[in-house]
Amino acid sequence: MISSNLDLIKMEVMSMAQLWGGRFTKETDQLVYNFNASVSFDQKFFRQDIEGSIVHTIMLAKQGILTKEEKDEILKGLTGIRQDVEDGKLTITEEYEDIHSFVEANLIGRIGDVGKKLHTGRSRNDQVALDMRLYTRLEVLNTDTLLKELLQTLLGIMEEHTQTYMPGFTHLQKAQPVTLAHHVGAYFEMFKRDRSRLKDIFYRMNYCPLGAGALAGTTYPLDRAYTASLLGFEGPTLNSMDSVSDRDYLIEFLSALSTIMMHLSRFCEEIIIWNSNEYRFVEIDDAYSTGSSIMPQKKNPDIAELVRGKTGRVYGALISILTTMKGIPLAYNKDMQEDKELTFDAIDTVKGCLALFEGMIRTMKFNKDVMEKSAAMGFTNATDAADYLVGKGVPFRDAHGIIGRLVLFCIEKNSSIDELSIEELKDISPVFEEDVYQAISLKTCVEKRLTIGAPGPEAMREVIRMHREYLTKDWQDEDDMFGGMLGETMDKER
């Protein structure tokens, strides 16, 4: 009998750390407990958990479910826990099953039985759904801020290099002359689309699941719209089963993060090529390069290579959650706990890559003379030479063949087209005149491309103007995006 009582007392203590246990008569196996626990990683959103608990408490009091005195005690306890964790006076340890049990157990330890009323009208299912949504919403904004900083840097490069000529490539073969501004502008468009995706995700996910309960709502008279407004959501979610089992917003965010990494990786691949001895288009700053332990001459583009390598890591998080979710019936299942670690890692990876990449390209030196010479020696003006002949009355198909023979001659002579004498040009086609040199100069080849989106200076100036205007506006400021009343409400509570 004594042994049985001790076991019950032990179970009661354990239940303080795991929010459940009344139905159980045996202690959870330690391996099972460790396998089931999530506090080692879900402590990452302890602020969101406390914020959600504060709002839930205020709403419960508004609805008469808690007294004003009970509300005040709970709020004081919650804000105290948050402050103590932030100040390092209270440590989140692995004796707790998850962040929710940590907060609630410490609250009860501070204010007694009143703390046990905090969980009225909610489940861990809607609680964790809220925490993850609040955390993800914030990280969408943080990622967007880093993208905007990167776009500012890219636009600065574009403004500086509207007349920096370089070869444009297809199939990694020199194709036609462009400018560095035009080339970088392609990436501006990519990262601009990335911001647009984040904006869409934010607005689509910005609905509050708290109040959905375990899966079927609650019999308590909760005001879910009030809770949603305090937390800055557009409103409450409209189906309690979907509320606790929806991870679409994470899948969308991880997809957007994967696309961002794909864009970074493409740019890094080009920088790695441009940084090679064979190209020498760029020189990466010493602060963003590393050396070799055995070869003293080496200056390696490790940051670009690591960003390229970490892309697969973010892809893995996306594939993991898609695989996890594909076979899960309604509503909540423990499988969904797997949404956190990889998502947290992917978010941190992308933010780190964006910050490092922006610093690398901001400090990178562009070798303009080398770029221009590469464009000239790569026959990038061959199409313009053919167009010159067409302008003189030669059918395009014939002009194409003439320039092909001309390029072959240049290769044999190790020369560019515009380095040939007029006599050599006339030997291949008598149509050539002295004005051909002006017509096929890199400057002319670029400047006569005037349609919007082309590399010509007039077109580029207009695009840069549009980009500059775009960056003066910020979707994060639109319509008081969070619109939350929590700060104002807390001030009134005080």
What does this entry look like structurally?
The protein has 494 residues and is mainly α. The protein is built from 21 helices and four strands. It has helices spanning 2-18, 30-36, 39-42, 46-62, 68-86, 99-111, 124-160, 180-205, 224-230, 240-245, 248-274, 302-325, 339-362, 368-377, 382-391, 396-413, 422-428, 436-439, 442-447, 457-472, 486-493, and strands at 165-170, 173-179, 282-283, 365-366. The protein has a two-stranded antiparallel ribbon with strand order 1-2. Strands 3-4 form a two-stranded antiparallel sheet. The protein is elongated, with a radius of gyration of 31 Å.
What keywords describe this structure?
mainly alpha; 494 residues; 62% helix; two-stranded antiparallel ribbon; two-stranded antiparallel sheet
Draw up the topology in text.
Elements (H helix, E strand, L loop, with lengths): L1 H17 L11 H7 L2 H4 L3 H17 L5 H19 L12 H13 L12 H37 L4 E6 L2 E7 H26 L18 H7 L9 H6 L2 H27 L7 E2 L18 H24 L13 H24 L2 E2 L1 H10 L4 H10 L4 H18 L8 H7 L7 H4 L2 H6 L9 H16 L13 H8 L1
Antiparallel strand pairs: 1-2, 3-4
Helix pairs in contact: 4-5, 4-7, 4-9, 5-6, 7-8, 7-13, 7-20, 8-11, 11-12, 11-13, 12-13, 15-16
